[in-house]
Amino acid sequence: MSNLAIKAGRKLFERNLEQYQPADPLYETYVDKKGRQRRRRRPIPPGLSTRDAKILKSVQRRAHYLDKGFSLCGLRFGWTFIIGIIPGAGDVADATLNYLLVVRKAKQAEIPDWLLRRMLLNNAVSAAVGFVPFVGDVVLAMFKANSRNAALLEEFLRIRGEEFLKAEQERVQDPQTVKPGAGREPGEHVPGKQERSGSGFGGGWFRRGSKGSKKGKGKAPAAGPSNTPTPDRGRFVEDVPSTTDNVSGKQQ
Length: 252
Description:
Oligomer: single chain
Number of strands: 4
Largest sheet: 2 strands, antiparallel
Structural class: mainly alpha
Order of helices and strands: HEEHEEHHHHHHHH
Distance between the termini: 130 Å
Radius of gyration: 35 Å
Helix content: 40-55%
């Protein structure tokens, strides 16, 4: 009974912690067909360029190991918590890692200034709390600034991808802020985006008709037999007049 009570208390503790913790930036949970809870990697939002997708994956992976790489008694923590245990130097190292590994990488996705300030604010709160002995380290493990910043980046890039997949006249976000299609290389095709081929009367049914007309033009019209000999028709036996017929015609 004591083991059952411990397990029940641990599950209750985990459910309470979920109210204060951000979601895992790298994995998401789902329920399989047998009703069991499983974990899988978060899918990349559609409509992103290859560059933005790589940046998001890198930020999610780094935030996961910095904030949620380990688990103990239902509390998930990462390297920031372990390093932060060192008084003074550990808190400075945490703040430095949070910026270099997450925020600076996120800046490569051309995020707006307001989003960058929000990420820096999360790092500032994390650094300030970390200076409180012991209690600050526990709060820091639950606050998880890197996971929050990764979630902000994912949501922003999700909006960017959705705006890029829409037609230009259907977009509702400011293109100067969201920058749909940012980071695309010349000729890069983003899955889900329907590229327009041709313009005006060059596309649609007119283009199909033009292909048919080109095929018709390529075929030479069938011509009846001609008595006028030409050098390029010498390969057709029926078109080459015989010499005996010419001689007999002259004698008559």
